Amino acid sequence: MNWEWQQQAACIGQDLLFFHPDGERGRHRRARQLSAKAVCDRCPVRRQCREHAVRFPEHYGTWGGLAEEERDGIGGSGRPFGRRVRRASV
Ligand code: SF4
């Protein structure tokens, strides 16, 4: 698995913005997701990130500008995963 693209990620060190805390719902969740997507909009590796999230698949968090519910049904095996922490802290 090639993770080198993550070295260029615009979201390095921002996992709290990209993964929802337990029990988060409604407008708080939507606001956090919009903030995360704004970071994705200026990310140079958005395409690689989105392809990774759909291929493996990643079930939690915002990846490649898509929230988890937006990735449902886009490819992948449907295998359950635990929460995965991504991106090296730099
Ligand atoms: S596109 Fe992926 S790597 Fe880039 S900021 Fe968004 S979640 Fe991070």
UniProtKB/TrEMBL annotation:
HAMAP family the record matches: WhiB
Listed GO biological process terms: cell redox homeostasis; negative regulation of DNA-templated transcription
Name of the protein described by the UniProt record: Transcriptional regulator WhiB
Post-translational modification: The Fe-S cluster can be nitrosylated by nitric oxide (NO).
An example Gene Ontology CC term for this record: cytoplasm
Gene: whiB3
Known function: Acts as a transcriptional regulator. Probably redox-responsive. The apo- but not holo-form probably binds DNA.
Keyword entries, A-Z: 4Fe-4S, Cytoplasm, Disulfide bond, DNA-binding, Iron, Iron-sulfur, Metal-binding, Transcription, Transcription regulation
Record-listed [4Fe-4S] cluster binding positions: 11, 40, 43, 49
Species of origin: Mycolicibacterium chitae
